[in-house]
């Protein structure tokens, strides 16, 4: 008789354990019903629900981070691909300036990834910006440079207005990311 009563008393705990075992990354929106549980298990279900909510938020942040990273890296990767394709297509035309440009793009990508990781780690919930004086016209021209050849192939051209001496304060990596998008 005691084993049966004990087993019946532990059934809600076993059911809670079974429900917990069914949860995976795709079912983090699941919540445990607290109202039908014995009073002793309600605080456990409440804490499990709070844990699931935190995990769901964390997974959502990770998904957003991955999507943002992919979006931010798309342009510099296209630039690197274009430089590499041109180097293969015209190996005799290779010059040190192209190598410097390739290295600069790689460094910008590294800095961008580093800053996005900082953001993802939740440091004050915003991107740590490092503003410094920036020549805006030069920044716009540098952002345009990787697209100039493709634009010329399509008979598109850019006319640069005056304003060579306009400067501002901005984070160069973030500014390049904005202009590149």
Keywords summarizing the entry:
181 residues, two-stranded antiparallel sheet, 2 domains, mainly alpha
Concise overview:
By secondary structure, the chain is mainly alpha-helical. The chain is built from five helices and two strands. The chain has a two-stranded antiparallel ribbon.
General description of the model:
This protein is mostly helical. The chain has two domains: about 130 residues; about 55 residues, no CATH class. Helices cover about 65% and strands about 5% of the residues. It contains five helices and two strands. It is elongated. The chain starts with a helix and ends with a helix.
Average pLDDT over all residues? 82
Note the gap between the termini: 72 Å
pLDDT under 50 segments (min length 5)? none
Question: What count of helical segments does DSSP give?
Answer: 5
Structural class: mainly alpha
| Helix proportion range | 55-70%
Break the fold down into its secondary structure elements and pairings.
Elements: H1 2-21, H2 42-89, H3 96-120, E1 132-135, H4 136-153, E2 167-170, H5 172-180
Antiparallel strand pairs: 1-2
């Amino acid at each position: 008789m005691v084993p049966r009563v004990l087993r019946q008393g532990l059934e809600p705990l076993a059911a809670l354990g079974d429900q917990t075992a069914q949860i995976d990354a795709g079912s983090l929106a699941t919540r445990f019903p607290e109202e039908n549980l014995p009073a002793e298990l309600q605080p456990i279900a409440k804490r499990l629900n709070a844990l699931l909510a935190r995990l769901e938020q964390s997974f959502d942040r990770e998904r957003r981070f991955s999507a943002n990273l992919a979006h931010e890296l798309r342009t510099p990767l296209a630039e690197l691909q274009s430089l590499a394709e041109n180097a293969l297509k015209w190996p005799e035309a290779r010059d040190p300036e192209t190598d410097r440009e390739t290295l600069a793009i790689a460094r910008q990508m590294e800095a961008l990834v580093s800053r996005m990781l900082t953001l993802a780690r939740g440091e004050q919930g915003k991107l740590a910006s490092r503003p410094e004086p920036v020549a805006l016209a030069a920044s716009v021209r540098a952002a345009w440079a990787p697209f100039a050849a493709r634009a010329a192939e399509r008979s598109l051209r850019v006319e640069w207005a005056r304003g060579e001496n306009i400067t501002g304060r901005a984070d160069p990596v973030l500014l390049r990311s904005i202009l590149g998008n």
